[in-house]
Design goal:
- The chain is an all-alpha fold.
- It has 2 domains: 5-122, no CATH class; 178-351.
- The protein has 9 helices and 2 strands.
- It has a two-stranded antiparallel sheet.
- α1 (24-45) packs across α2 and α7 runs antiparallel to α9 (285-351).
- It is rod-shaped, with a radius of gyration of 67 Å.
- Residues 348-370 are annotated as: Disordered.
- Residues 126-245, 291-339 form a coiled coil.
- Keywords: Coiled coil.
- This is RAB GTPase activating protein 1 like.
């Protein structure tokens, strides 16, 4: 076949209008029937275009078959093969891609016009009108069906949109309520946080004052303890000196007493009175005066020694008491510090939580040590 200008595609669209239908099987059947009608129409209009393509695509099958097989192939297998939409579209594309000379096209056009005029002249007008009426009725029914489908789809879409709108409004109401609750909770949380910050500042101030007071008390107690220790050391040194002086004086007195003839008979070497009786006539006025003075001096020394010991004991007791007070004060300060820090941290954590909670009780400052 000669090649030249490509054959123009048929004016009628081969694809069926896409529409939604409740019965997909009927729609597919209509589509297949329409394609079959279009293919047959094209075959009838352009058999000179399609026959070479059919022979070219079926060349192998025709060469392998005999005469009866070829007839069966044209009658059964070939229509069945091109009944599928994809094969029919491929065949029409191949047929439309055939290049035909312009002279041939004009010749084919004249032949087609002549054939159509002869068909119209030979055809009964009543049959033509009936066929046209049938075609118009089918088109009207198809349009009515499409109208019903579109109306049903419109109603369904309106119902679905209304349901979606109601759900969206309900969701918006819920979100607005949650937003109001969240804002209220945020205000309460901020107020609670502000109160917690004020309480924290007050607690810090109280703790700072108590800490300064405790440090001052500790310094004061430390100074008093150091002073008492110094006093005790001085008293101990003084006591030791007085004891040494008393011993020296006692030794001197003993020496004098032993050197005296009258006293040596009365006192032993250890300073105790002898058991043997001594007559009053042998005692003189000087021995009595000396004895009284020595006894008086001894009593004074013993009294001074007792007072010094008493002062030393009192100083030691005072030192122990101050040490005890210092330890108790340090324990109270440490306990107050730990309790205050823990309660402050808990209150801060509670204040920064998502839900408003009760404010923590204010911590009591540590008691002053007496």
């Amino acid at each position: 076949m000669e090649e030249g200008v490509p054959c123009p595609a048929p004016a009628a669209k081969l694809t069926a209008p896409v529409k939604k239908s409740q019965d997909m099987h009927d729609e597919r059947s209509k589509l297949v029937n329409e394609y079959a009608c279009r293919v047959l129409e094209l075959l009838g209009m352009g058999h000179r275009l399609f026959v070479p393509r059919l022979l070219a695509t079926s060349k192998e099958d025709l060469l392998q078959a005999d005469f009866e097989g070829a007839l069966k192939f044209f009658r059964v297998q070939l229509p069945k093969r091109y009944r599928a939409e994809e094969n029919a579209r491929r065949l029409m594309e191949q047929a439309c891609n055939i290049k035909v000379p312009t002279k041939k096209l004009k010749k084919y056009e004249k032949e087609y016009q002549t054939m159509r005029e002869s068909q119209l002249q030979q055809e009964d007008p009543m049959d033509r009108y009936k066929r046209e009426n049938r075609r118009l009725q089918e088109a009207s029914m198809r349009l009515e069906q499409e109208n019903d489908d579109l109306a049903h789809e419109l109603v369904t879409s309106k119902i679905a949109l209304r349901n979606d709108l109601d759900q969206a409004e309900d969701k918006a109401d819920v979100l607005n309520k949650e937003l109001l609750l969240t804002k209220q909770r945020l205000v309460e949380t901020e107020e609670e946080k502000r109160k917690q910050e004020e309480e924290t500042a007050q607690l810090k101030e109280v703790f700072r004052k108590q800490l300064e007071k405790a440090e001052y008390e500790i310094k004061k107690t430390t100074a008093i303890i150091a002073e008492y220790k110094q006093i005790c050391s001085q008293l101990s040194t003084r006591l030791e000196k007085q004891q040494a002086a008393s011993k020296e004086e006692l030794e001197v007195v003993k020496g004098k007493m032993m050197a005296c003839k009258h006293c040596s008979d009365i006192f032993s070497k250890e300073g105790a009175l002898k058991v043997a009786a001594i007559s009053r006539e042998d005692q003189g006025i000087e021995s009595d005066d000396e004895k009284d003075s020595l006894k008086k001096q001894l009593r004074e020394m013993e009294l001074e020694l007792a007072q010094t010991k008493l002062q030393l004991v009192e100083a030691k007791c005072k030192i122990q008491e101050l040490e005890h007070q210092r330890g108790a004060l340090m324990n109270e300060i440490q306990a107050a510090k730990n309790s205050w820090f823990s309660k402050t941290l808990n209150s801060i954590k509670t204040a920064t939580g998502t839900q408003p909670l009760q404010p923590p009780q204010a911590t009591q400052p540590p008691k002053e040590s007496t």
